[in-house]
Design a protein that fits this description.
- With 397 residues, the chain is of the alpha+beta class.
- The protein is 23% helix and 17% strand.
- The strands form five sheets. Strands 1, 2, 3, 4, 6, 14 and 17 form a seven-stranded mixed sheet that branches. It has a four-stranded antiparallel sheet with strand order 5-15-8-13. Strands 7-16 form a two-stranded antiparallel sheet.
- It starts with 70 loop residues before the first strand and ends in a 37-residue tail after the last strand.
- The relative contact order is 0.24.
């Protein structure tokens, strides 16, 4: 009988802790990939907090007129140090997939980056760096500096079935209406509020659009509190493991083409922090399975919950514009992010282009204790198809 019509849940093979070939994975660590949650560790709505408190809860008005609280312009000294580290790395001949803190050393900046990492994981969950000289350095050196900076926040994980650890948010002409096949970051369509399959996401602006393509973020904990007060019925629906997420064909042998999960979870252990994972494009693209009765279609309650969640995020969001040379880092634990639709410049002007990083922060290095099989893995999350090796292209493919 189809998994969506029984009380059992889809599973995936899990082979964590086994050695991997360094000929395929240069650092000896393989991206874990997408997995269903540990259903026995999921908690009922009644055990969730009525209200979330703390620094992860913030309002847009807290920051909209106070950029000094969330924007850091690189100093001349910081640019110089990153430039020297990038030049040394390039001279070594090491591939981008092999970059690490050991071969991209920033002794003084590392202390500052540790504080940023802590704030991303346990504080407000976002930072905007400004002033990386991408026009002067070009894509290759800029990518080295960007990825080198990222090593101080987490471990690179693959972002798609092709193993991209350096991703490219760029319109390559894919049809955004084909949501069962197309990843929206490869189009110019609006990206609704969502979170990615990693702990921290980074975006480096290489080129801006003619119009649009602007960023919105919101504290998922603030959204949670508003829903708890205004629509507890919707919040309850979002805590239930009744949501199927499409894997859009990025599946290893023996795995299900979708994952059954919840939107809001409670962290494992006594901490009780609320973790969320959401992308409406991935729950609305499964009609090829629901039309055949393989999984149930979205219920009226689920459709309403998705609409209410998006509207609430939009109402509470902080808006920002990424300029060329800006780097945005966000928590995927407790921040939702979105992008407006955009129009590119006419050729030969460059198209809008953001380099993207997905970073993992495992439990033993301060990461959240998530109700997933791979929570303790160095490269938890991400998208891994079989043993496809990591690659770091310098432009969209």
């Amino acid at each position: 009988m189809a998994p969506g019509l029984t009380k059992s849940y889809p599973t995936a093979p899990h082979h964590f802790g086994q050695p991997v070939s360094k000929a395929i994975f240069p650092d000896g660590i393989k991206t874990s990939g997408q997995h269903p949650p540990l259903y026995d560790d999921l908690r009922p709505y009644e055990q969730f907090p009525k209200v979330i408190n703390g620094s992860t809860v913030w309002k847009s008005e807290d920051y909209a007129n106070a950029p000094e609280r969330w924007v850091h312009r690189f100093t001349e000294e910081e640019i110089s140090k990153m430039s020297k580290a990038a030049d040394a790395f390039l001279s070594s001949g090491t591939p981008l997939t092999g970059i690490s803190k050991a071969n991209f050393k920033l002794p003084r900046m590392s202390v500052y980056m540790e504080s940023i990492r802590s704030d991303l994981l346990n504080g407000k969950g976002f930072i905007l760096f400004k002033g990386l000289p991408v026009d002067e350095w070009g894509n290759h050196k800029s990518a080295v500096a960007y990825m080198g900076l990222g090593t101080y926040l987490g471990y690179f994980v693959s972002q798609n079935g092709r193993g991209h650890v350096l991703g490219h948010v760029k319109d390559v002409g894919d049809d955004p209406k084909q949501i069962d096949k197309v990843r929206i970051y490869r189009t110019n369509a609006r990206q609704f509020f969502h979170q990615d399959d990693c702990d921290i996401v980074g975006l480096l602006c290489i080129a801006r659009a003619l119009k649009g393509g602007e960023s919105d973020i919101v504290s998922s904990h603030h959204v949670y509190n508003v829903l708890s007060e205004e629509r507890p019925d919707v919040l309850k629906t979002l805590t239930e493991p009744i949501w199927y997420f499409d894997r859009k064909g990025e599946v290893s042998e023996g795995e299900e083409p979708y994952i059954k999960t919840a939107i809001f979870y409670l962290e494992k252990g006594g901490n009780g922090r609320v973790y969320s994972k959401w992308d409406p494009y991935y729950v609305r693209s499964l009609t090829r399975f629901s039309d055949q009765g393989i999984i149930p279609p979205l219920s009226a309650a689920q459709l309403e919950a998705a609409d209410v969640l998006e509207a609430t995020c939009k109402r509470l969001a902080l808006h920002m514009i990424l300029e060329v040379g800006d780097i945005q880092f966000l928590s995927n634990e407790h921040v939702f992010h979105a992008r407006t639709e955009y129009t590119d410049h006419a050729p030969p002007a460059p198209r809008r282009h953001l380099m993207r990083l997905w970073l993992a922060t495992p439990e033993d290095e301060g990461g959240w204790k998530l109700p997933f099989h791979d929570s303790a893995e160095k490269k938890r999350g991400g998208i891994q198809v079989d043993d496809h090796p990591p690659v770091a292209p310098l432009d969209a493919e």
